Amino acid sequence: MPGFGLYDLATQEADILQAAIDKFMEAGDTQEVAVEKAVAAVDLLVEGKVIAYACVIKMLEAEAEAIKSEEARLLARRKSAQNKATALRLQMIDLLPHDQKWKAPTAEVSFQASKAVQVTELDKIPAEFRRVIPETWAPDKTAIRDALKSAPVPGAEIVTHWSVTIK
Asked: Taking each helix axis from N to C terminus, what angle separates 13-26 and 31-95, rounded to the nearest 10 degrees?
């Protein structure tokens, strides 16, 4: 009876059992002996399939665990590489003149300035520059930036941030 899957065994057990009985009776066994042999054969077949499924499940679970461990290791490597790249970018910003560009066949380096509102003293931000968030508030940096173009805003200033573009 090889070739039957566990699904086949579960859904067609009566048909498989009857086919086994018929084969044993064709071989010359009495109906009583054929039934005993067929039940034993089907039980053995089911047991073998169950054990085989259990072994495959254990193997797949072990593989999944190994992949999970590898994911954690790769995540740590990715974060480390990202942190090193960020540190090198910051070093370039600190050490190189921002008005120059460097070009080579393998990379181009240039600097770009961006403006951002930095809140220096949160408690000094006037009410008109606050966004109310339930149970708390946050400074409205867009409104503060627009206001800072014409007059100072207590507790805020415009700062310049530099980023490095690498192509």
From this structure: 130
